[in-house]
Specification:
The chain has 235 residues and is of the alpha/beta class. It is built from nine helices and eight strands. The chain folds into two domains: 130 residues, HAD superfamily/HAD-like (Rossmann fold); 81 residues, DNA polymerase, domain 1 (Orthogonal Bundle). A six-stranded parallel β-sheet has the order 5-4-1-6-7-8. A two-stranded antiparallel sheet has the order 2-3. Helix 1 crosses helix 2 and helix 2 packs antiparallel against helix 3. The chain is globular.
Length: 235
């Protein structure tokens, strides 16, 4: 484990997969939504289709240089729903898109509240940087434990660029109000969060609860592990 540092002045967190988790998961939500429309599909089939559709959108984003917008994000999810549940057609898109805008569709990592309080007590600026759209703001508003991040939430659809684009992380730097080298970015995605942040001059820690990336030295298995990496004050 790298030694703790006393010159981290801000910690920004990824949203989905780091602080926020769909509950129930997307596969269960899609499968049940199809069943209510009279289409019975196995969760394994839904999972395989969903993953293939999601990866196709990632390829499209790479080809577009990671540019995005609210319209692009809505189109992305419309295609994912259509490709995951072709038997239902476009009839479920509005329902599913709206479902994931609801706070009760998500749970927050149980370590989050105590972690934020401890970091804030050390004088650390807190924020969030997410590849999401305007729906994220309604989700955050429904989870008071995430209030310490309010005012410093960077959302890709609003910025116009998705992680791992440098432009996205430049907006994180602006929101943090400190130089990139003084910001620690925490996320669960190796390419978007870890490599994206470090390429933009930020520090990064990979949240890797299942030890999928043992070759990455800057990784933790739970959020509270951040406390071993940050010892200083932003003052």
């Amino acid at each position: 484990m790298p030694p703790p540092t006393d010159d981290v002045r801000a910690v920004f967190f990824d949203a989905v997969g780091t602080l926020l988790f769909p509950d129930p998961g997307a596969v269960a939500v899609y499968t049940e939504a199809a069943r209510r429309r009279g289409v019975d599909l196995s969760p394994d089939l839904v999972r395989a289709r969903f993953w293939a559709a999601y990866q196709a959108e990632e390829v499209a984003d790479l080809a577009a240089g990671w540019a995005t917008s609210e319209a692009r994000e809505e189109a992305r999810w419309r295609r994912i729903v259509a490709d995951t549940l072709p038997e239902v057609g476009d009839g479920l898109f509005a329902e599913l898109f709206g479902h994931f805008a609801r706070p009760d569709a998500w749970r927050v990592d149980p370590d989050a509240a105590a972690l934020f309080a401890e970091l804030a007590g050390r004088g650390i600026v807190l924020g969030m940087g997410s590849n999401y759209d305007a729906r994220l703001m309604s989700v955050l508003a429904g989870h008071r434990e995430l209030d310490p991040l309010a005012g410093r939430v960077v959302v890709s659809a609003a910025v116009g660029w998705r992680k791992p684009a440098r432009t996205f992380f430049a907006e994180v730097e602006r929101a943090a109000g400190v130089p990139a080298a003084d910001i620690l970015f925490v996320g669960d995605d190796l390419d978007n969060d870890y490599h994206g942040a470090t390429a933009a001059g930020l520090r990064a820690v990979l949240l890797d609860p299942n030890a999928r990336h043992p070759d990455v030295s800057d990784r933790i298995t739970r959020l509270s592990g951040i406390l071993d990496r940050v010892t200083g004050s932003a003052g």
